Amino acid sequence: MNKTYPLEGSYLIATSSMSHERLRGSLVYIYQIEDSMVSGVVINKPSNKVLGDYLAYPKHVLHLPVWQGGPVGTERLIAFSRKDREIYITDRLANLTAEQIDSCMFLSGQCVWEMTALLQQVQEGDWLLLGSNYIVPQQIPADLRIDYVLRSSGVRSERYVVGASQEVA
To answer: pTM score, two decimals?
Structure first.
């Protein structure tokens, strides 16, 4: 079966041949391509941090967890949510509605590639490129998110060889 997906709005799953230690075991959502630069966020790496480690207000959200979004710009918070049935990603947290905050995944950092470098990594088998235009529900546990994306994309999970999972620093 040959499926073609746009890169923006797709998922990358690190394969067992991933050489970048910090990205082993990662599930990355690609959210932007601009000027041949690709930006994404890791969405399956919990951390021990909360919004209160980054923000002083609003007080009612300071207890919410912050996930490890990637190795670049880890001081920057990114909100990953749904808005009007679309995936909505922003670093302007003040623009989030109460409904978005309730269903939001907050991430510190992101992944950034030059387009040709990422495409070469995909061709070399470091990444499996899958699916698009759906969001992994927040209630799916971190360790089951790769399997969820595989199943949602019609790929049998036994065909994916899991690499060693490492924390994204």
So the answer is: 0.84
